[in-house]
Amino acid sequence: METIIVSLGAGLLEAVQPLNLMMIVLGCTVGLFVGAMPGLGSVNGVAILLPITFLVPPTAAIIFLAAVYYGAMYGGAISSITLGIPGASTAVATVFDGRPLAVAGKADKALTAAAIASFIGGTVSVILFTLFAPPLADFALKFGPPEEFALMVLAFATFIGLGGDDIPKTIFSILVGLVLATIGLDIISGKPRLVFFDVSGFLHGINFLVLAIGIYGIGEMLWTLETTGGKVNVHKVKMTWAGFKENLRSVKDYIKTTSLGSVLGYFVGTLPAAGATPASLMSYGLAKTFSKDPESFGKGNVSGVAAPEAANNAASTGSMLPMITLGIPGSPTTAILLGGMIIWGLRPGPLLFTEQPEFVWGLIGSLYVANLFTLLINLAFIPIFVRVLTLPFTILAPIIFVLCIVGGYAPTQTMHDVWLMFLFGIMGYLMRKLNYPVAPAVLAIVLGPLAERSLRQSLLSSQGEILIFFERPISAICILIAIGLMFYPVFSKYFKRKNTDTATQN
Fold first, then answer.
1. Is 198 buried (19+), middle (13-18) or exposed (0-12) by CB count in 10 A?
2. How far apart are alpha carbons 200 and 219 in whole angstroms?
C-alpha cells in the first residue's frame, strides 16, 4: 500500500508538470465539445487528434488523448440533454430523463447532475484502478464468451424495468432491436442476411448512431411539432447562483444510484470489448428497477441522468485497465490509444509497470487531474449550454435537423445511412404515438451483436451444449441474477397489490 501511495504521488507530480497540465486542460476542453457533437464521439475525436500528438513527448501525448477521452465522456450528455440527440452511444441512456428535464425547464439541474455524477464515477473508478489494477486484470481474463453472453443477458434483463408495466410491448420493442442488429453479414459464415431489396448499404449493418439520432433527433422533432402544432414555447432556463447551490444540495438524492453506477461501470469497463455503452445502459436499468419511484423514470428523474453518466465515465477508466496491464483494448477508443502507445515505442502489458513506471503512474495521476478539470470546465460552460434552449424553435429545429444529417452521414459517409435515419425517425415517432417504448429497441441494437457473437462462440466451443452457461460459476451467477431481475417487477407488483388489498380490508 505504501508503495502505491509513493508511486501515485510521483505520478501526480508528473501530471502537474507545465506541459502535461496544459495538455490535460486542452484535452478536457476539446473532448467536451467532441463528445457533444452528434456523430463524432470519443473514438473519432481521438483518432482525428492522434497525428497532432507527435509534436509532444509520448507521456504528454497519451495524457492528452486520455484527457480527450475523459472530456468526451462528459460531453456526450450535453447534446443528449439540451437537444435530445445523443452525442455518442455512451450517452443514449442520458436522453431518457435528461431531455424531459430540459423540456421542463430544468436543464441546469440535469447538466449539473451529469457533471457531478461523471466526476464521482471518474473518481471512484480511478481509485479502484489505482488499488486493484493487477487482481482485476486477472479476473477480467476469466471472462470468456460464456461469461460475456451471461453479462449481456443480465443487461437485457434490466430492459424490463425500462418498459414500465407493459411488459409485452417492452419485449416486442426488444425483438425489433434484435432483428435490426442482425442485418448485414453473418459473423460466422460471412453470408448476407436480411439485406432488404439487395440494397448494398445494408451489408455493413445498421449503425447504432444512425438509429439513435433518427429516433431521438428526427422522431423527437416530429413528435414536438405534432403535440405543439408548431408553436413551441421557449424553455425558460435560468442559471443563478442560488439555483446552482440548490442543484449541488440535491446530490444526496442520487448519490446511492451514482455510487452503484460507478462500481458497475468500472467493472463492466474492465471487460475486453464491453465498454461504456453497456455499462451506462445497465446502470440506468438497475437504477429504475430498484428505485422507489420507477414510474418517474423517462419523465424527468434526475437519477436517470446521474446513473448512466457515472457508469460511462467509470467504464472509460476501467477500459484502460486491460489495455495497460494486458495489452488488450477494453473499448474502441482504448484500441486507438493502444495503437498510439505502440507507435511511441511503449509496449502495454504486465512489464510496463516495471519498465516504464514514470509513464504508467504519470498517466494514472493525470486521470485524477483530468477528472477535476473536466468537472470545473463543464460546470463553467453550463450557462452557455442552457442558452441553447432559449433559442426560438424556428431556429433550433433547423439546427437539430442539420446536426442529425451530419451525425447520420459521419459514421459511414454514405447517403444510405441518412435516408435510413429519416426512416428510423418516422418509426420512432410512430412507436411513441402508439405508446411503445423505444428505449429497449435502441438498447437491443447496441447489445445484440455483442450477445450474438459470444453466444455463437460459446455454442461452437461446447458443440451446441447449452449447459456451458450454467457449468461456469461466473456465467451461472449472472444468468441467475438476470432471471431474478426479470421476475422482480412481477413479484413487486404482486406484493404491492397484496399490501393494498390487506390495507383496504383493515
1. exposed
2. 25
Longest dimension (CA), the chain: 77
Distance, in Å, from the CA atom of 177 to the CA atom of 156, rounded to the nearest integer, reads: 12
Name the residue among 103, 135, 128, 53 with its Cα closest to residue 340.
53
Cell readout for 429 is 415517432
| Secondary structure string (H, E, C) spanning 34-96 | HHHCCCCHHHHHHHHHHHHHHHCCHHHHHHHHHHHHHHHHHHHHHHHHHCCCCCCHHHHHHHH
How many of the other CB atoms lie within 10 Å of CB of 358? 12
pLDDT above 60 (res 300): yes
Rounded to an integer, what distance in angstroms lies between the CA atom of residue 496 and that of residue 506?
15
Residue with cell 444510405: 416
Q: What cell numbers appear for 409 in the block?
A: 452521414
> Kind and range of the H or E element at 390?
none
The structural domains of the chain, with segments of one domain joined by +, span: 2-492
Rama region for 105: left / alpha / beta (φ>0; ψ in -120 to 50; rest):
left
Spatial distance between the Cα atoms of 437 and 78, rounded to a whole number of angstroms:
23
Question: For residues 284 and 437, what is the distance between their CA atoms, to the nearest angstrom?
Answer: 15
Q: Which set of grid coordinates corresponds to residue 294?
A: 420507477
Q: Whole-angstrom Cα distance, residue 13 to residue 11?
A: 5
Residue position matching grid coordinates 432471471: 483
Selection from 389, 404, 443, 439 nearest residue 111 by Cα: 389
Residue 170 to residue 150: CA distance in whole angstroms: 20
Tell me the C-alpha distance between 188 and 190, whole Å.
Answer: 6
| pLDDT tens digits, 121-135 | 988 988 888 887 667
**What distances in angstroms separate CA 205 from CA 181, 196, 366, 449, one per listed residue?**
7, 11, 38, 10
| Grid cell in block for residue 145 | 464468451
Beta strands 192-193; 184-185: pairing state: antiparallel
Write the burial class of residue 195 (CB in 10 Å: 0-12 exposed, 13-18 middle, 19+ buried).
middle
Which helix (H) or strand (E) segment holds residue 130: the answer is: helix 107-141
Cα separation, 401 vs 113, in Å, equals 27
Span 168-223, pLDDT tens digits: 787 888 888 888 888 988 888 888 888 888 888 888 888 776 887 788 778 877 87
Q: Which residues contact 306 (CB under 8 A, 6 or more apart)?
A: 113, 114, 116, 117, 254, 257, 258, 261, 287
Lookup: cell for 500: 393494498
- Answer yes or no: is pLDDT of 271 > 80: no
pLDDT at 234: 45
Counting residues of the chain whose pLDDT is more than 90, the rounded percentage is: 2
